[in-house]
Amino acid sequence: MSKLIAAIDQGTTSTRCILFNKEGQIVSKAQLEHTQIYPQPGWVEHNPHEIWERTQDVIRNAIQQANINPIQIQAVGITNQRETTVFWDRKTGDVFGNAIVWQDTRTKQICDELAAPDGIDLFREKVGLPLATYFSGPKLKWILENVDGAMAAAQNGNGLFGNIDSWIIWWLTGGPDGGSHITDVTNASRTMLMNLETLEWDDEILQTLGIPRQVLPRIVPSSDSLIWGSTSLEGPFQASIPVCGDLGDQQAALVGQACFQPGEAKNTYGTGCFLLLNTGSEIIQSQSGMLTTLAYQFEDQLPNYALEGSVAITGALIQWLRDNLGLIRNSPEVEALARSVDDNGGVYFVPAFSGLFAPYWRSDARGVITGLTRFANKGHIARAALEATAYQSREILDAMLTDSNVDITELKVDGGMVENELLMQFQADILGVPVVRPKISETTALGAAYAAGLAVGFWEDINQLRENWEIDKTWYPEMDSELRKNLYQNWKKAVTRSFNWI
To answer: How far apart are CA 413 and CA 425, in angstroms?
Structure first.
């Protein structure tokens, strides 16, 4: 009877359950989308109960597809959309409103008021993050101040806060019947509430934001043999399985790509785009608009840190072309449409739908399409949309190398958009370094599986994880250096046109 590890990958647009074997290969996979809720401009929400229902469904579906006995599953790992904020009642599991998604900008006024005296770096020395609508802390403050009953629940001990990982783990391990209220160091580092050095919630920041400490989850390592709880016989697994791995989605991809050495980097192309550079045990405070974040912590080992560049809209832009403009019927069609033209025709698309993240951190920016002439057609717009992802990744990598003084010789890539060969070739061209796709592109879920598997001894150490990593395809730069320079300069010019709209 083969043994497996289950990974739950709860993302911005969908939830997946993937079962992996010891070689890191996929045995079965199930995926379901959930509703994107837009109550007003700049607001993005999810229904936490719908997410939990989808999670249960994909677990059952993955087990059924694999045709296994659930007792073959040795451990469960979780990875999740980070910064998406849930507040719920510990006694009932009822939520205080929908989850506020990481893309949501409703906390701009809160962030602006906090930044007014000393700027956006008020907490950066402690948390490695600027004051921005992106992070969970201001979202929680907004909930406590604006949702009926939330502050009272926080003060009487019934209110629980968490990113989506905490919400899923709480339900998996019992929910109102003693569910474990925890989060790992990587997710905690995205709240703007955890001190990077102590790995504890920072009382001074909590006081400044008016957040009662008792609503916060216990911070644990990303991989932990001190199991946080087990799944119940009545739950979707229908077996008692240890839950012992937890990583934010981008850190999970770093682990899944086996980027365990300082200087190793990966870029994930999903709803947004996230480039992480492992900096080892060193906390590097960025001077170039990057985020300093936890990369992972295994058991009682020293934590590993990373520099991160975050782009809000990449894959979501292709969905926008499909759903809002109707230019394509499904996301893969964008490549054929973009290939219908030889180049971008002078068109640039800056998708600042919810402001710009790294390296600008401009919540006042909004999306623009520039360089339009009568010559431009929908093929040029599709190509400009794809190229926007590559340009934004180039900006992040440039800033990251300035901070770290590390020369990256290749970029490991993963996520749904890496199947787009036109994008991957343009990414290599605009970076001027090879782009490498692994055989297993589900590296986010794989990282969560690795964290859980290490905790129960399914994998002995990270050397075994490295052995599982294999190259599927490499794209090498083919673009003339002068053309690369000109295209990138025009992109930088286009970005400035998105500023000062709000």
So the answer is: 12
Residue 433 near residue 406, CB atoms below 8 Å: no
- Smallest Cα–Cα separation from 467: which of 2, 19, 23? 23
One-letter amino acid of 490: N
SS3 content of the chain, % helix, strand, coil (to 5): 35, 25, 40
- Strand-pair category, 265-269 with 411-414: parallel
The helix or strand, by DSSP H or E, that contains position 370, with its residue range, turns out to be: strand 368-370
Residue 473 pairs in a beta bridge with: 437
pLDDT at position 1: 62
The C-alpha atoms of residue 246 and residue 482 are separated, in whole angstroms, by 45
Q: Which residues contact 446 (CB under 8 A, 6 or more apart)?
A: 7, 18, 20, 24, 252, 255, 256, 440
Size of the chain in residues: 502
Give whole-number Cα distances, 128 to 159, 250, 429, in Å: 27, 16, 31
**Phi, psi of 403, rounded to the nearest 5 degrees:** -70, -40
pLDDT-derived band at 160 (thresholds 50, 70, 90) equals very high
Which residues, other chains included, contact 77 with Cβ-Cβ below 8 Å and sequence gap of 6+?
5, 6, 7, 8, 244, 245, 246, 247, 447, 448, 449, 450, 451, 452, 453
- What's the one-letter identity of residue 242? P
Displacement of CA 451 from its chain's centroid (Å): 16
Whether cis (ω within 30° of 0) applies to the bond prior to 434 is no
Q: How far apart are CA 313 and CA 381, in angstroms?
A: 16
Beta strands in 122-264 (DSSP E): 159-163, 182-184, 218-220, 229-230, 242-248
**pLDDT tens digits for range 439-470:** 887 899 999 999 999 999 999 889 999 988 88
**What is the spatial distance between Cα 410 and Cα 427, in angstroms, rounded to a whole number?**
11
Residue predicted with more confidence, 285 or 19: 19
Place of tokens 């994930």: 268
What is the pTM (predicted TM-score) of this model?
A: 0.87
Per residue, the 3-state secondary structure of 306-340, as one string, reads: EEEEEECCCHHHHHHHHHCCCCCCCCCHHHHHHHC
Is the CB of residue 303 less than 8 Å from the CB of residue 185?
Answer: yes
CA 160 to chain CA centroid, Å, is 22
Q: Per-residue b/e over 476-488, b at no fewer than 16 CB within 10 Å? A: ebebeeeebeebb
Distances in Å between the alpha carbon of 374 and those of 298, 347, 349, 380, 455?
56, 11, 16, 12, 60
- Rounded alpha-carbon distances, angstroms, from residue 321 to 252, 253, 268, 330: 29, 26, 20, 9
Q: What CA–CA distance (Å, rounded) separates 478 from 458?
A: 42
373: tokens are 């002439």
CA dihedral 76, 79, 84, 87 (to 10 degrees): 10
CB 51 within 8 A of CB 93: no
Beta bridge mates, 364: none
Neighbours of 94 (CB within 10 A): 12
d(CA 132, CA 113): 11
